[in-house]
Amino acid sequence: MTGAKCSPYGIHFGFDTYALAHGTGTALTKSGGDSWYFITSDYAFGHALERDTMAAVRAAGGKVLGAVRAPLNNADFSSFLIQARASGAKVIGFALAGTDLQNCIKQAAGFGLTRGGARIATLLVQVTDLVALGHKTCEGMVLTDSFYWDQSEATRAWSRRYMAKMTTPPGLQHAAVYTGVTHWLKAVQAAGGTDADAVAAQMKAMPVNDMYNENVRIREDGRTLHVMHLWEVKREAEAKYKYDFCKLLTDIPPDQAWRPLSEGGCPLVKRLREPARTRRVSHRRGPGDRAGGGRMDGMDLRRRLGWSAAEAKVMARAALLRRRQPGLAAVTAADCLALGRRPERRLEPLRRRQGNGP
Question: Residue 331: helix, strand or coil by DSSP?
Fold first, then answer.
């Protein structure tokens, strides 16, 4: 949602496969875990998580010894775990989620996968998984996340309120939903209404501040630039109280955690950063002009310049009016966009000159 399919109204407050992969993959490879083997769920999410982690491992100087694909909703991981152990890899990456991840972790513990010195990298695990599996089963696992209930006094206070209703500690998905809703409410208050364009602009202009974010920026492609953290599940004997699962290994700053803006392919970024002078409406005939010098087709503008349908329609009308009155000042996309949801108001003085409106 922050890549090629980004939206002016889409803002991502949770994790993505790039951040999960680069956090765990890069950190473990640089700390000596320079050979990897993957057990991957055989569907789009698992493939993406494996792909991004492999890229991070190789970029950090590590090597991938192999991978095996496990069917979704699989109950028996024994053959996959045997292959992983036989590979001799220092790190076994579980590109799994949900019950598949839980089943694989349980069976890995039963196989004694880590007794030979290998580490298990769980590329997507939630605190609810740790609760379900039990502390002893998860000892030594490494994970990446931006939120952990016990990471600060502010998160502990918020989590106590949550646990008073829900009994188990909250994970990132719970925290991200809370962050998204409260940030939207603050933006509505600041914008003075619920107009989508105004609220979206306000959300990106305001820093995110709450129990686990401090002055966090939302990028133009909609990515919320949280600080990510690398955690390790401590030994059960080290726990001081209930749900005391993790210890912090390192913080991962946003410029290292998240996919660079230049690699995402979000069309909004190019359009927002494009100088206005390069987007001036041309008076010369093009493929979209009707024979005989009529109007420029809105779809032609949209194809050529990557504008939205509404913007292209307004600009096509502006081009037609300007042809009829060459003395008018040039109309640019920036002129229209400055008026928010009603760019057609830019045309009112043109209509008045033609006697088509008050």
Answer: coil
State the Cα–Cα distance between residues 297 and 280, nearest whole angstrom. 15
Domain boundaries in the chain? 17-168+226-262, 274-354
The Cβ of residue 103 has, within 10 Å, a number of other Cβ atoms equal to: 18
pTM: 0.71
| CA-wise closest residue to 311 among 319, 301, 321, 320 | 301
What does the H/E/C string look like for 168-226?
Answer: CCCCHHHHHHHHHHHHHHHHHHHHCCCCHHHHHHHHHHCCECCCCCCCECECCCCEECC
Cα(57)–Cα(47) distance, rounded to whole angstroms?
A: 15
Task: Evaluate whether 281 touches 331 at the Cβ level (below 8 Å).
Answer: yes
Residue type, 316: A
Residues of the chain with pLDDT under 50: 276-302, 304, 339, 341, 343, 346, 350, 356-358
Find all residues with CB under 8 Å of 295, minimum gap 6, and list them: 289, 316, 317, 319, 320
Report the pLDDT value the prediction gives residue 167, as an integer from 0 to 100: 87
DSSP string, 97-133: -HHHHHHHHHHHHHHTTTTTS-EEEESS--HHHHHHH
Q: Specify whether domain 17-168+226-262 bears CATH 3.30.1360.70.
A: no
- Looking at the DSSP bridge assignments, the partners of residue 251 are 229
Quick one: tokens of 293? Answer: 């010098």
Among candidates 339, 317, 53, which has minimal Cα distance to 197?
339
For residue range 181-211, what is the model confidence (pLDDT) as tens digits? Answer: 999 999 999 999 999 999 999 999 999 999 9
